[in-house]
Amino acid sequence: MERNAILGVIDVQPTFMPGGELPVPDGAAVVGPINRLLAGHFATAFATQDWHLPGHASFASAHPGRAAYDTITLPYGPQVLWPDHALAGSANAALYPGLDQRRIAAIIRKGTDPAIDSYSAFFENDHRTPTGLHGWLTDRGVQHVFLAGLATDFCVAWSAIDARRLGYAVTVIADACRAIALPQPGGGSTLDRARTDLAAAGIRFLNSNEI
User: Fold this and answer.
1) Residue 84 among the catalytic residues
2) Which of 45, 60, 119, 170 reaches 20 to 30 Å from 147, CA-CA?
């Protein structure tokens, strides 16, 4: 692996695993490929954690009369409403216990502001408020960001597009990700939309055995 590359482990938390508050289908399957990549290909990595206070604006429970997976408009734009998840300090908001953390050098917590959601590892959903990750990567000379984790069509995709916008080469490791794949009006799913957007941004998809 090139010296200026890093692996980003996105939201590999029990809250998104089977039995969690917001389970991503087959979400636990990402752990094996990620651990193999951490052991064999990357000298260092960063991880993200969704980290929400109760009553977060992205929770359906904070909007009477609304249901999970509805979309509303908040001051920063469209927002999918989610089941309460990733509650700060809870066991389900921790990094997944089976994840090999020995090479994870930084953890970025996102969604900490109760008024705004944060899918991307780089910016909150207003696309302006930074998480600090870009500065950390710049200081270390990182030029190529590889991404794995949950979910392909939300936090992985938004992180990938922001990384590309900031000038990084970006590769999504397809078999080390899983998607929510919400149906969309007019057909298709959020995964279909994400794949189109990622391809348009010049982001590559590889499998872990191709790294």
Assistant:
1) no
2) 60
**Whole-model pTM?**
0.96
Q: Is 100 a catalytic residue?
A: no
Catalytic residue among 117, 153, 155, 177: 155
**Distance of alpha carbon 30 from alpha carbon 22, whole angstroms:** 16
- pLDDT tens for the 211 residues of the chain, in order: 677 999 999 999 999 999 999 999 999 999 999 999 999 899 999 999 999 999 999 999 999 999 999 999 999 999 999 999 999 999 999 999 999 999 999 999 999 999 999 999 999 999 999 999 999 999 999 999 999 999 999 999 999 999 999 999 999 999 999 999 999 988 899 999 999 999 999 999 999 999 8
- Which residue in the list 50, 84, 110, 117 is annotated as catalytic? 110
Instruction: Locate the domains of the chain by residue range.
Output: 5-210
Look up 162 and say whether it is catalytic: no
